[in-house]
Design a protein that fits this description.
Radius of gyration: 26 Å
Strand content: over 45%
Strand order of the largest sheet: 1-11-8-7-6-18
Distance between the termini: 54 Å
Number of strands: 36
Organism: Pseudomonas inefficax
Number of helices: 0
Protein name: Glycoprotein gp2
Structural class: mainly beta
Keywords: Signal
Length: 442
């Protein structure tokens, strides 16, 4: 079910993906050394909410769901493979090791025979081997999203899931008329950083967990179907919409993942720190806007470079934090942010990040007239009291020139030939930057 395929994107009918706001999925991976007990794979992956999952190889069984003869109710997704991995024997690399293992899985299904819909959804952070069977030096890892659907008729179908929205144009109904697998991270064997760039993360987890079996703790029980939390978009469900009023959804997932005991810093990813200021009726009005990604509450994020300290606010459990300060910044200010997730994860340590405070540059016009070869730029800075110098470059970095003007809004008109630039970038001496596509006119 989870086996990797030769191409990172295998789609039978795939029209495109709706682009949601950029998410922070996974934060870090075990840098090694990689030992035989883990099959030569990283011991753990950490997500942007600070949860760290071990490669799930334990044979702990569920105390909630009884197993059947020959089919134990493992808390890890352990898949026997004849001649490769016998789950009744000790796990030993490479002689008796799973050809597929997982740091994380979250699977769901929607079946409606009357509407002709049969959907399976898979998300995973997976360990596998390039040539499929356990061999030293052949280890790969990847983030997987898979959607397979039997649909009754042709048409446009939209599937919303915890890690995105997919749009499919289907020319004919039938079995697996929608068949998408997106594996991100498969690069060279032994390179395990690629999965950090995948769609999967933060880790979904059961709303009823964590579960404890012996001395081990798990974010879910894959033998159960349960509601989850953790979607970066607050879409903790799978939903399919299609022709004829099809609108079906499930909030139930089978989730696996073994919580690690490794001590790691709290994830903290500054997103933006900009200031603005202007004078009104002789009074200076200033503000600083700070955005960061970090674990959601009960974690905290604090701006510690001002007195008194300023606590950032998190709105909806996705880990997006924001604060506004009314202090007037000094030129070249450096802000210090501190994130603390020790309440939710006691092994998490404080993380501190220093980030530059810049003005906000906005390009309002980038136009190239083909008949004359003239490029016209209009851009502004958020620093209206002491406007900095704004400089324009082409998208490939070639200097165009400085914009002119005495206020916050500055302009530049110049001859640029023989061809127009695809993009322009305007940068400020106070650190701000904006990039826009160039609009072509006759």
């Amino acid at each position: 079910m989870h086996r990797p395929i030769p191409h990172p994107l295998a789609v039978a009918i795939f029209a495109g993906m709706l682009q949601l706001p950029a998410q922070a999925a996974l934060n870090a991976v075990d840098p090694g050394a990689y030992v035989p007990a883990n099959g030569g794979f990283p011991a753990w992956y950490q997500d942007s909410h600070g949860r760290t999952l071990d490669l799930c190889l334990t044979k702990a069984v569920s105390s909630r769901v009884p197993g059947a003869p020959g089919a134990p109710s493992y808390m890890c997704t352990l898949l026997p493979t004849p001649g490769v991995f016998d789950d009744t024997q000790p796990i030993v690399f490479p002689t008796n090791f799973p050809d597929e293992a997982f740091w994380f899985t979250a699977d769901a299904a929607i079946v409606d025979a009357t509407r002709g819909i049969d959907l399976t959804y898979v998300s995973a952070i997976e360990a596998a081997f390039a040539a499929e069977e356990p061999v030293e030096g052949d280890q790969v890892s990847f983030a997987r999203v898979r959607i397979r659907v039997d649909v009754p008729t042709a048409g446009t179908y939209v599937v919303t899931h915890p890690y995105g929205v997919e749009v499919f144009d289907v020319p004919a109904g039938g079995r697996r008329a929608i068949n998408m697998t997106r594996d991100i991270g498969i690069a060279g064997a032994g390179d395990f950083t690629g999965a950090l760039k995948g769609d999967v993360g933060p880790f979904l987890r059961s709303v009823n967990g964590p579960y404890t079996e012996g001395s081990e703790r798990f974010i879910g029980d894959p033998n159960l179907e349960e509601r989850v939390t953790g979607s970066p978009f607050n879409t903790n469900y799978v939903r399919i919409e299609g022709p004829g009023g099809i609108d079906l959804r499930t909030e139930l997932f089978a989730v696996s993942g073994k919580l690690s005991e490794v001590a790691l810093p709290t994830p903290l990813m500054p997103q933006r720190s900009t200031y603005s200021r202007h004078t009104e009726n002789g009074d200076l009005h200033a503000q600083q806007d700070i955005f960061a990604m970090a674990p959601p509450p009960p974690a905290s994020v604090t701006l510690t470079s001002q007195t008194p300290n300023l606590n950032l606010t998190e709105a909806n459990g996705t880990g997006a934090w924001y604060a506004q300060s009314v202090l007037d910044p000094a030129a070249g200010s450096i802000l210090t942010l501190t994130a603390d997730n020790s309440v939710a994860i006691p092994t998490s340590s404080l993380t501190t990040a220093n980030v530059p405070l810049t003005d906000l540059v906005t390009i309002t016009q980038a136009q190239y007239r083909l008949s004359t070869g003239e490029l016209t730029l209009v851009a502004s800075t958020s620093d209206e009291t002491t406007p900095p110098v704004l400089t324009a470059h082409t998208g490939n970095g070639a200097l165009i020139g400085n914009l002119s003007g005495t206020g916050a809004v500055k302009t530049l008109s110049t001859s640029l030939s023989p061809i127009p630039p695809a993009k322009v970038q305007v940068t400020s001496t106070n650190g701000g930057s904006d990039t826009e596509d160039v609009v072509l006119v006759p």
